[in-house]
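Hi R.,

Quick one: here's the histidine kinase sequence you asked about.
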Amino acid sequence: MYGILAVSNDSIASDIAPGEADLTSCDREPIHIPGAIQPYGVLLAVDRKDFVIRQFAGDTQALLGIKPRRIAQLSLHSIFAEPVLQAVAERLRDPAATVVPSIQAGIVIPGAASRLDMTIHAQGDLAVVELEPSRCAADGYDPISDVKRMLASVATAENFAACCDAAVRAVRAITGFDRVMIYQFLDDGSGKVIAEDTGQDVDRFLGLHYPASDIPRQARELYRRNWLRLIPDIDYRPAPLKMAGEQPGSQTLDMSHCFLRSVSPIHLAYLRNMGVTASMSMSIVHDEALWGLIACHSYTPRYPGVDLRTALELFAQIFSLYLEAKLKADQAQRRVAAQRVHSQLTTDALQAEDIPAALVGGRVTLLDLVPSGGAAAWVNGRLASVGKVPPVPVLEQLIKWLDSTNHAIFHTQQLGSVFEPALAHLDTASGLLAIASQRRERDYILWFRPQLIETVTWGGQPDKPVEVGPLADRLAPRKSFAAWKQEMRGRSVPWDQADLEIAQGFHVTLLEAVFRQMDTARRERDAVIEHQNVLMAELDHRVKNILATISAVVQLTKSNANDLDTYAVSLQNRIRAMALAHELLAGTRWHGVPLADLLAEGEVSFATGGRVIMSGEPVTLSPRAALPLALVVHELAANAVKHGALSVPHGRIGITWGRDNADNLLLHWRESGGPPVSPPVRRGFGSLLIERSLKQEIGGSAIQTFEPEGLVCHLVIPRDCVTWTS
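And here's the predicted structure, written out as tokens:
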């Protein structure tokens, strides 16, 4: 779509010998140092210390009224009036090695024929000043109002596809370009036009795919680093970068952030073959990676002013945030649903003698955790599967091959390209997601996806031949962009980020926990059997407590609900809060979690209306402290719902925490307003769990006091298990 982006200098040509050029040759071209600019402006590279001009490009006579021979002897002090010079100095006062571009519109330079727009950035010891004729709209134009209108049209869209359609319509309306598209990069580097708005009698590209070679890796990186790129007229003659005097050893100017940076002649030929005269693109970034582009084409030259470009850049940034929020919300919903399956599978595995059978033959299976066509578990030399998987001999070969790769997590949508035996089983095993234990004899969980046979419509033949033309031994861009259909085989639906995160979570909580228990069982079998009995008893008690908690929530919800709909919504929200709290704890066992977040999940789950009051210093729990404390907090909250302050409408719980002189965490749980409390005749398993969990796991302590007005519990977490923010 955008074509091969190459450099305008010929230094790379020597690296590609005759006959060696292929579709990846342009990946080696340093397009960030083209040595020239587009000639609709002037570039001055100056020393950051004294503002002396070191390099320059463009028609300084026409734009600044200064002959090139003279400008090579000047500094910015000789060119700019004091107000402009002060603005430049203020911007470059930042001591950072890299200063991102900033714009000042409508500046006045003595000798210049008109007002100019200035862009400044810095790289190392050099600052780069780019000047162009000011083309800003008339006084009174408010770019923020345009951005608000564009965002309003996006925000009211019913779904993401409609959102993209609204975005391209809004951009075309404000820019006047003949074609505006949203181009999404796919997993293999190729791209697809997913939204488009065009003028009358303009060819449509919607739905067309374009090969990865059309936008090489280094070009995608420049798009990621720069929100907007403009080529106002492809029929230009590059203005070469010139040295100001003799400067032995001067560095090559990195023009990555230069707005005037010249474009590869091959890319210009590509656009010319498409009939395009001007192009502009805004980047769409997700998770700091280039997700796609908002691409604009015009069949006549277009010079949008910096005010409009600033508005478009701001829109691209906010649209990227909207996209990121939408995608992460969708993934979060999947993770919440997967967490319930995750918990059940872990429970089944902990109770089972045959772990592989438990993972594929229970009420929920591995297929419920990650969407796939088949799954298999290989544990301690035993194999079990569910759904459609390759034959056992192929699975055994695959296990040996995975052993040789030594990956903890491995995924591919083209297994046949790296594991040849899979080519005979594309209908079951084109895609593979595998997680491995860290034991000496590795165990595996495998998910398989079948091949997805689809017909892809390309914008021209994707495997275009190498052509030797007027650009010497270079790849010449294809001249035909007619739809070219190709049947794609041997690839599955790709594994997305949510799939990988869910698998990673299962890898940590199941494989690292259960399989290490198996290793311990070989060395100390009797001790492990006793430990497993304790775990089974604890699990039984946990299930009963969870059911009791849900029952209390149901009753509390019912007593406060006015109608069935309110009752259903309230109950659903409370149960969802419990699931979210469980997901938080599962994640923080390995990454640390703020205490306030852990307690907030519990508070949302068990009470509303300000019945739980919390206060304390910001503190983060270590991974090994988060889980036992979560268990203790759950026991306290469950008991409060069943017997304590939260069992009556006016009961309250106060949770406070701080640190002692040794920086240990002290947490106080105090209930009030509930039924009268008296010491229990006998201690139940919950009390034992509260008192023993912290002590056994991290060397902490828990002391319960049954005061008449309510339960009081004092918890101590050792300082090596917490990090104080202040």
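The domain at 352-453+491-523 is CATH 3.30.450.270 (Beta-Lactamase).

Cheers,
M.
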